Amino acid sequence: MFRTRRSGRTGAVTTPGKPAGSAARRPLLFVGAVAVLGFLGVFFAWPVLAILHRGLRPETALVLVDHGTWRIVAFTLGQAAASTALALAAGMPLAYLLARVRIPGKVLLRAVITVPFVLPTLVVGMAFRALLGTAEPSVSAIVLANAFFNVAVVARTVGGLWAQLDRRAEDAARSLGAGPLRTFGTVTLPALRPALWSATAVVFLFCSTSFGVVLVLGAGRYRTLETEIYLRTVRMLDLSGAAALSLLQLAAVLAALAVAALARRRRESAGGVRAAERPARNPRGAEWLVVAAGGAVLAALLVPIGALLVRSVSSRSGWSLAGYRALSGTGDGALGVSGWQAALNSLRTATDATWMALSLGVLACLVLISLRKRWTAELMDTALMLPLGVSAVTVGFGYLITLQLLPGDLRTSPLLVPFAQALVVTPLVVRTVLPVLRSVDERLREAAATLGAGPWRVRREVDLPLAGRAICTAAGFGFVVALGEFGATGFLARPEAPTLPVAISELISRPGELNTQMAYASCALLMLVTAGAVLVIESLRTDSVGEF
Amino acid sequence: MRAFEVDDVAVPGVRQRDEGLRLENVTVRYGSTTALSGIDLSAPGGEVLAVLGPSGGGKSTLLRTVAGLEGASRGAVRFGGEDLSGVPVHRRGFGMVFQDGQLFGHRDVAGNVEFGLRMRSVGRRERSREVARLLELVGLAGYQRRRVSELSGGQAQRVALARALAARPRLLLLDEPLSGLDRMLRERLAVDLAELLADSATTAVVVTHDLDEAFTLADRVAVLSEGRVLQEERPRRLWTRPADEEVAGFLGCTTFLRGRIEDGVASCPLGSVPCPGEHAGEVLLGLRATGVRAHRSGTERHPGRRGEVVRRLHRHDHVRLTVAVPELAGAELLEAVVADTDVPDPGEDVALALDPAGVALLGR
Question: For a disulfide at A173, which of A183, A325, B6, B224, Cβ 3.0-4.6 Å?
Answer without folding.
Answer: A183
